[in-house]
Design brief:
By secondary structure, this protein is an alpha/beta fold. The chain has ten helices and eleven strands. Helix 4 links the parallel strand 4 and strand 5. Helix 1 packs across helix 5, helix 2 runs parallel beside helix 3 and helix 7 packs across helix 8. The chain is elongated, with a radius of gyration of 24 Å. Keywords: Nucleotidyltransferase, Phosphoprotein, Transferase.
Length: about 300
């Protein structure tokens, strides 16, 4: 069964909200709010696929709501259909200039509403597919560095707001250059694919995120995971790769492919830039490789901003 699209209807007129809900509820999941302020609060906690937004409302009007939606990276891509009793071409043009995708005049035809909602959802579906394809690593078919950066930025902001822990893992296939030199690049590509699959398969929570970081490096973003939980998860990933038993006779630390892992954890959302977590995880990875490889080094960033390593 196809997942129903989530549509937020923002209108201060209860009759309009009721009619729009009845028009769209059979095909979509509908949410109703009566003000611009409530709409902005709602989208902070709930993802929606489309917003039908009245222009003239008490308090924040539809134009200001759209401006704030477009200024927020987490909401700027949500398509917005303006709905208004104003039929002036200037009002319509202003809506499009601010980023609205369509404009419906009141009184509205329910058939027109359905058609325009359907059209905008189809456009969003195609755009989402293109965005997904642009975010997937072509070789391993897991998320790429671009998608990793977006995911980390989003989870870091959530961690900062809620004061919840956030862990980042950086992983490197040990002596991978020697593997390529010994077995050839085709075998190296196959090795990367198998390691990527093992890492992704080990993720059980829907919020756990593994991506190809670049070359033979991978990364994981783990929301609401503290240091000890991150260590358990890292050991699970390390064991998953060891279990592949991919022969590596050129390795200097094992007879098969292994990975080294660096972990950085912020326990209370106190890291002031998401790249700090990557930098700390990279330092942990360097220590893991420098102390023998096939190892895990965790770094905790304390409230003071200082970090410490734990082998």
């Amino acid at each position: 069964m196809l997942k129903k699209a989530k549509i937020l209807i923002v209108d201060d007129d209860p009759l309009n909200r009721l009619v729009l809900e009845k028009t769209l509820a059979s095909d979509h999941e509908i949410f109703l709010v009566e003000s611009g302020e409530k709409a902005l609060t709602f989208v902070k906690s709930t993802e929606v696929d489309l917003i039908i937004l009245d222009i003239v409302m008490p308090g924040i009007d539809g134009y200001d709501v759209l401006i704030q939606l477009k200024e927020n990276p987490s909401t700027q891509t949500i398509p917005v259909i303006f709905i208004s009793a104003n039929t002036s071409h200037d009002d319509e043009a202003k809506g499009f200039e601010l980023g609205a995708m369509d404009y419906i005049a009141k009184p509205f035809s329910t058939a027109i509403v359905r058609a325009r909602v359907r059209n905008q959802l189809l456009i969003k579906q195609k755009n989402d597919l293109l965005e997904m394809l642009a975010s997937i690593d072509g070789l391993t078919e897991i998320p790429n560095r671009r998608y990793l950066d977006e995911n980390l930025s989003r989870e870091w902001r959530r961690s900062r707001r809620a004061g919840t822990p956030l862990s980042v893992l950086l992983m490197d296939i040990d002596h991978f250059k020697r593997y390529n030199d010994c077995y050839g690049h085709r075998a190296g590509d196959d090795c990367l694919k198998r390691v990527a699959h093992a890492l992704v398969t080990a993720c059980e929570r829907g919020s756990d995120f593994v991506a190809r970081y670049g070359g033979e490096e991978f990364a994981a973003v783990l929301p609401n995971i503290n240091q000890q939980e991150a260590l358990v998860f890292a050991n699970k990933l390390r064991s998953a790769v060891n279990a592949l038993k991919i022969p590596h006779k050129a390795s200097l630390n094992a007879e098969h492919i292994t990975i080294s892992i660096g972990i950085a954890t912020t326990e209370f959302g106190q890291v002031y830039a998401e790249h700090t977590l990557l930098e700390e995880a990279d330092l942990g990875l360097y220590e893991a490789k420098d102390t023998g490889r096939d190892r895990i080094v965790a770094r905790v960033i304390a409230a003071s901003g200082k970090s410490e390593s734990l082998l």
